[in-house]
Amino acid sequence: MKKRYIVIIISFIATGLFFACKGTSNDKIEETSTTGTLTLYVDNTVQPITEDVVAVFESVYDRATITQVNKAENEIVNALLSDTAKVAIMTRQLTPQEENHFKQKNVVPKVTEFAVDAIALIVNERTTDSIIDIEEVLKVLKGEPSEKINKLVFDNQNSSTVQFLLKRAGVTTVPAKNVYSLKTNEEVIKYINNNAGAVGIVGVNWLVQPPLQLKEYVQNIKVLAVSNIDVNTGEKKYYKPSQSDIATGLYPLTRKVYVLNYQGKDGLGTGFAIYIRAHEGQRIILKSGLLPVEIPTRDIEVRKEL
């Protein structure tokens, strides 16, 4: 009986030592392209697809831990320039002026283009219009009156969607009238769900792959077809942000998506960028509503009947 108690005590001690050693080893995982920890700053516009890729990446490489931090574009740039962030996903590259910060530190960036995103214009399903002229949107952003648009609603005044459309309109600041900014893409979708007469602006990924809590709101939303001039006929036509129209360049509101790596070394950021650009990562992008840089191929086996 005494021996039995000794065996039990030794088992408990051994188990405790095992878990203690395991915790210690996890805390000291060396960072490589597939192991270690990484804080990844992500543009809110492409938050859902990044979450999907991160989840699959971590399931494949179980010794890798990626913490996703979702921010507006200006906040991400500030984090990079203050060295708070080292790796980010954005819908633009840094400007030459912004790059100077890293040149002074002899940090060579690794930029990986992995998708093409589209900005979607949305309205409440009760709205009768199903098309919109891009010129009307730009009018509102210039502070000019529009007969078609009473209110434009953005996710955030510092977001990449705002900056993208302000650049298209040729202005640098958001007008005081008829343009409203909330905080997130989720808030824009909920606002449009509850308010007819406003035009919302969100990343198309939020509509194709909405989080579970947003699905009922997305069902009450209509995606507008946006005008574009046909290069061959000169005729104005309207296109929705489908993958085919993004691929052919017919949809006018698109931008590229990048992994910007300023780690200055090969690490988990490098491995994630390689993965999202490789076959498996591009398949995830394809399902998200965005356009992958490389369309994954499908092998079709034709069987000969006997």
Automatic annotation (TrEMBL):
<dbReference type="InterPro" id="IPR050811">
    <property type="entry name" value="Phosphate_ABC_transporter"/>
</dbReference>
<feature type="domain" description="PBP">
    <location>
        <begin position="31"/>
        <end position="276"/>
    </location>
</feature>
<dbReference type="Pfam" id="PF12849">
    <property type="entry name" value="PBP_like_2"/>
</dbReference>
<protein>
    <submittedName>
        <fullName>Phosphate ABC transporter substrate-binding protein</fullName>
    </submittedName>
</protein>
<dbReference type="InterPro" id="IPR024370">
    <property type="entry name" value="PBP_domain"/>
</dbReference>
<feature type="signal peptide">
    <location>
        <begin position="1"/>
        <end position="20"/>
    </location>
</feature>
<keyword id="KW-0732">Signal</keyword>
